[in-house]
Amino acid sequence: MSKILITNVIIFDGSGSDPFRGEVLVEDNRITSVSKGDEAASRDGAQVIDGKGKFLMPGMTEAHTHFSWNDQPSLSAIQFMPPEEHILWCVRVAKRYLEMGWTSAIGAATAKPRLDVVMRNAINAGEFPGPRYLAGSQEITVQGGLGDNTLSHLPFRELSFGDVVCGPEEMRKSTRMFLKYGVDHLKLNLSGEYIAGIPAEASPFSEEEIAMCTSEAKRAGKRVAAHARSAESVKQCVRHGIELVYHASFADEEALDMLEANKDKHFVAPGIGWLVSTMYHAEQWGISTELATKMGYARELEIASDTLQKMHKRGIRILPGGDYGFAWMPHGTNARDLEHFQKYIGMTPKEIMIAATKLGGEIMMQPESIGQIAPGFYADILLIDGNPLEDLKVMQDPTRILMVMKDGEIYKHCKDTEPVSPGVHASPVAQATRDVGVAEALQH
User: Record's superkingdom (predicted)?
Assistant: First the structure.
């Protein structure tokens, strides 16, 4: 049995309690004890890491991830990357997320039907490093909906960003295909998106199409996620039991009432960083703030901020993450969401960090194993140079993330976090990658 003792740290355990001085004992892949104050854990046979008074916290969950989005400025550019290069891209991105402290992630949709499933399986098999991962389907859409990139002179559905269906029976076929591939959840594009030329408040799906997807998914024991910006699409999520609600910018009072009445069933990952970045950071790619305003993003950001503040006050679960992987919000910058939650939603840093950790365990469907530093939980642990409860920006700086442990294995560490005794328990993949700095990964 491998034992690692992390001493001399300030522990934020993710439970909601205030941070405390203490130490954490890890045996194999689980946390076995958490000592407070002057309490001391057993050192027998343990390799000791002196945290030197730094901030220790649970690994974070990114609730709205697109590993296959390859930092391009359009959906078509993302889709047209050949599959061989695309899976290699995903491998590099998975490592990048892990090194930035995201030890779990939800695949919100993939650009090609099996990329997410292959990624998940390879990570689980220890073939390369990455977060705990739940694999999504390709985005399922309807003719003229978000993700339908088919052309009239090239009517090949395989070239489309999304899987295009028309009617309940085509929806049944699409759903069963992705279930056959082994996804953890399906993804429906229930509303529009301004950048795609489709109003965000549009709701193009029929009730029958949605019902077919959710009934087939439930029969297989799988969840469903939805791109749902419009008020009607949010209501469709509640009516049809779609657990993962992405965006929800225009949820009206009726939609908020419905979410609140079912808040133990749904999670909202708004991807507010997409709105902020498209408004203020996309000019290099032809979208000035003026143009983004004309497209509708200034209005949506204002309404979404108000809507999400209301959701938070109602106790609806809101988690960070979403839509990173576009040119103006590249992978590795996801921790910006933490700051956005404070500025635009009015959440406190402590509430935000709980959303990124404890609620992450809930959305990953492992609330008793993921998202807290407590006995019995997986040893998914970060050591931070700085206190994110005082300054959330520290989570955006890769040099401030001193150590990343996932499942008891150290995948990233600086010299100051080297155990005092040799031979840290790690898989061959972890041993080969943990000393590579995240700065290198960000260059890819």
Answer: Bacteria
d(C-alpha 186, C-alpha 242), whole Å: 10
Q: What is the pLDDT of residue 97?
A: 98
Q: What angle is formed at CA 395 by the lines to CA 271 and CA 363, rounded to 5 degrees?
A: 45
Instruction: Flag whether pLDDT at 420 surpasses 50.
Output: yes
Residue appearing with tokens 């076929």: 173
For residue 147, the model assigns a pLDDT of 83
Same CATH topology for 3-59+371-441 and 60-363: the answer is: no
| Cα separation, 341 vs 374, whole angstroms | 26
Residue 429 has pLDDT above 60, yes or no: no
| pLDDT at residue 75, as a whole number | 84
Nearest Cα neighbor of 163 from 109, 235, 107 is: 109
Q: What is the pLDDT of residues 395-410, one digit of tens each?
A: 999 999 999 999 999 9
88, 167 Cβ separation under 8 angstroms: no
Of 160, 135, 156, nearest to 67 by C-alpha is 135
Does the domain formed by 3-59+371-441 have CATH 2.60.120.20? no
Query: Whose CA is closest to 248, among 264, 222, 266, 261?
Result: 266
Cα–Cα distance between 270 and 228 in angstroms, integer?
A: 9
- Using CA atoms, how far apart are residues 340 and 359, in angstroms rounded to an integer? 17
User: Which fold is adopted by the domain 60-363?
Assistant: TIM Barrel (3.20.20)
* Cα gap 298→271, rounded to integer Å: 15
Exposure on the CB side of residue 58, measured as CA atoms within 13 A: 30
Residue with tokens 């290198």: 440
pTM (2 decimals)? 0.92
* Cα–Cα distance measured from residue 230 to residue 163, given in angstroms and rounded to the nearest whole number: 21
